[in-house]
Hints:
The complex is a heterodimer.
Chain A: H1 11-15, E1 21-26, H2 33-41, E2 58-64, E3 67-73, H3 85-96, E4 101-107, H4 111-123, E5 128-133, H5 135-140, E6 144-145, H6 147-154, E7 158-160, H7 169-178, H8 191-201, H9 212-220, H10 224-234, H11 238-251, H12 256-271, E8 276-277, H13 286-295, H14 297-348, H15 352-359, H16 364-393, H17 395-409, H18 417-423, H19 427-433, H20 440-453, H21 457-467, H22 473-495, E9 504-507, H23 515-549, H24 552-566, H25 573-582, H26 584-596, H27 602-614, H28 619-629, H29 631-659
Parallel strand pairs in A: 1-3, 1-4, 4-5, 5-7
Antiparallel strand pairs in A: 2-3, 6-8
Chain B: H1 5-20, E1 26-27, H2 38-45, E2 49-52, E3 55-58, H3 60-83, H4 88-98, H5 106-113, H6 130-138, E4 143-145, E5 154-160, H7 165-173, E6 181-186, E7 191-195, E8 198-202, H8 204-207, E9 210-213
Antiparallel strand pairs in B: 1-3, 2-3, 4-9, 5-6, 5-9, 6-7, 7-8
Helix pairs in contact in B: 1-3, 3-4
Amino acid sequence: MSWFRKRQDTAESSAGAVVRRKVALVGNPNVGKSVLFNALTGAYVTVSNYPGTSVEVSRGSAQLGDETFEICDTPGMYSLLPITEEERVAREILLTEAPDLVIHVLDARNLERMLAMTLQLMEADLPVILVVNIMDEAERMGLTIDIPLLRQRLGIPVIAAATARNRGVAEIREAILTYDGRRHVPFGYGRRMEQNIAAVAGELRGSYRLSVKALALLLLQRDEEVEALVRTTEGEGASRIESLVKEKTFERRESFHLELSMERKEIVHGLLEGVITLPDKRRETFASRLSRLTVRPLTGVPILLVVLYFGLYQFVGKFGAGTLVDLIEKQLFEAWLNPWIIDLAGRVIPWEVIRELFVGEYGIITLGFRYAVGIILPIVATFFIFFSLLEDSGYFPRLALLVDRLFKKIGLTGRAVIPIVLGFGCDTMATMVTRTLETVRERIIATLLLALAIPCSAQLGVILALLSKTPGALLVWSVCLLLIFVVIGFLAARVLPGETPLFYMELPPMRLPQFRNVLTKTYTRMQWYFMEILPLFILASVLLWLGKITHFFEKLIGWMTPVMASIGLPKETAVAFIFGFFRRDYGAAGLYDLQTKGLMSPRQLTVAAVTLTLFVPCIAQFLIMKKERGTSVAVGIGVFVSLLAYGSGWLLNEFLLATGLLA
Amino acid sequence: MKLSEKAEEILEALWIAVEEKGRAYLEIDSVGIAGDDPAYAELTEVAFIEVKNGCVYFRPEGRTEGRQTIRRHRLAERLMMDVLNIRGEDGDRKACQFEHLLNEGVDTKVCTMLNHPTTCPHGKHIPRGDCCIEAERLGDMGVVPLTELKSNQEGEIAYIQTEDSKKMQKLMAMGVLPGNRILLMQTFPSYIFRVGFSEFAIDTQMAREIFVRR
């Protein structure tokens, strides 16, 4: 916990140009920190109209004048006292990295609510610049803010901006360059609060990065991290401080948090007296009317269905997995690139074995590259465009509140709708996003359901293409998956100890997504995805090639044949399942090849599709599961999912045989 | 004038017999307080009751006083259960002792704090006091959970009652602070409300923890 301590005086930073000055962007979720980050650095981080999407900390550098600054974008935080994991991450940056400048970005429309955090930052003696962002939307609502007066009241630089429209960015750059040391107008709490703070602060002898006043307040709010820090820093004095804090907090046990918040609210109220002019009447905009339609069940559910039909079925399914795959896979690869490459390899590479590696049955180019670029890429690209559009419009929080009641039944809250929907794009990415969920229990349930019953877009595309030719197969497949999703979720919610947390979420105003934003966002996601999967596909090709030339592969298929046979599948499907070990969609694409060759009956196809969809997630997802949930949970989920997949396949096969469905 | 505890109990028993059971009088034998107890004389002296042939009758002033007494008794029961969380026989016994303290305006305060309840924990009617009538006249719903508001009703946040202090901090950080105006926009499938220029969605359980004054 050494990072709380006061940083060494950065003498070397002023002497040499080696150490860059560091600027941290902080603020509530969804106030435009990431947009500002992009504007300052020119780099691109994912920006969305959804609270809590910056899970990772983005860093970049900005060239301002002659100096290069390091800019760091933090996850959204509501207060200096962290409650969620994201807030903890954000605060840690403020403290470990001791930024030379903290830019607090807030939403002009909610100045009164968000200014309380500016007070906390100032109180901690951090060097703060305040950016009052989203001024354009505030003005449209008829809100006016007297920025010079606010600047005078606070004593720190205050800049009005609308970073999405590039307004105020030049002033922010200027303010970063010309910032000259921390100073702010002092403000105080009521007498009793100040006495309590002074009593605790007076006992703090060590040197800290935050002001003792801020630390004392955090102690009084029983911040465990700060308690631990004080314990290690103060040594012998720690127990005295601890008992003093206990005494004070016991005295005010009834309502310390509330009173502190109320006092801050009073201070903010005083600061904003005459600064804000509110409109006499709320203006009803198209966005707010649309927003209302999306959250009422009577209109919201039809809207959801329309969005899913056009977005997922028409755009991703028909256009992405149909038209685009046909174009790239059939036209580009099969008809043109593959013959050319095979021909070229035949002339350039004299050794049969090496030729096999590149252009053989499992060749890096003819299989790995073709799958990745020809089948997976168009599907994932269209999905990410669809997802980014929804994300930027602010639709997801509305969807979350719409499904909250249903999700509670499977041990999740509406919040989990984001990872689950994202899972239809890429389960690996979605598993990473589950960390925005509040409790460990919820994260485990979401991780399990993602690993089990949510097919990713690539897989979904291939499966749709695979099954759509067989009437009824798609229906059986969908019913099976939905059933397993609900039943396993329901059981998990009952088996796992703990309670489903409460649901609360801020609803950002709905906005028209900006085309450029959506495209760049899709592009960065695609880039991430492609970097993630291409090496895996190539690795899979190489391993399959190795397996083939060493004849290990044949043995493996031999071993798996009885297992396959027990769920009524021909031995060729073993290949697809071995593919599926690398990526589920890769396996599904293998099935696609089998089906084209006419090797499977509709029943076999359906059983194979269900089993494979449920099966072990791709290696990348497993690795992320391990990273996010720990080895034991990841292995546990992996084993459970495998057994369940096999069991469901067996059951489904028996059921289909007995009923004669899909015969 | 302050009646003795026994006198108050006689009044209560008489009030129940007359007002709720529709009888004309109460037989002394069924009161549980012996006929020669000075409490009867005390009540006769202030002209609250009349005792004839081993039966107790109301006089007009006594009827009003009886009503107030029974009201205090049932308010005390509510207080035991709702606020102090003492239930069952224990609650009844404590309520019997407590009711005698609820005079000189204390009953009004308790009644307002409990938001003018209409029934006691046993489901019996609590006679209305002046404060209840006044509250109704003003249309004052008092402090109610957010769940009691209808869509598009507005109120002022009175307090947040939650056992989870983290959750309370989160709510407060989001701007859900006592004194702020709150507009309930929708109640199903989730509660949606607006504070300032921000909108929030919460579930029913959380909505029960936000108390609003209309």
